[in-house]
Amino acid sequence: MQRSAESSGRRKAGPFRSAMSMLNFYINRAGSQLSESRRACLEAAKDELRALYGRPRRRPPP
């Protein structure tokens, strides 16, 4: 996700916002079809993305 966001030449925002947007789009698009375990995995991926870009995590790691 990070590599894709950083190498993209079509983004309007920074790479962090672009990558976070990709994850949010996937979560929102799946909606109620997304299982709780998969949603938890994607939320953890968002926390890892925040860590890669030096942003504060939303919740402490498990």
Provide an overview of this structure.
- The protein is mainly α and 62 residues long.
- Helix content is 63%, strand content 0%.
- α2 runs antiparallel to α3.
- The chain is flat.
- The two termini are 22 Å apart.
- The mean pLDDT is 85.
Short structural description:
This protein has helices at 2-7, 15-30, 36-52. With 62 residues, it is mostly helical. α2 runs antiparallel to α3.
Radius of gyration: 12 Å
Find the structural class using helix and strand composition. Answer: mainly alpha
Shape: flat
Ends: how far apart? 22 Å
Notable characteristics:
62 residues, mainly alpha
Topology:
Elements: H1 2-7, H2 15-30, H3 36-52
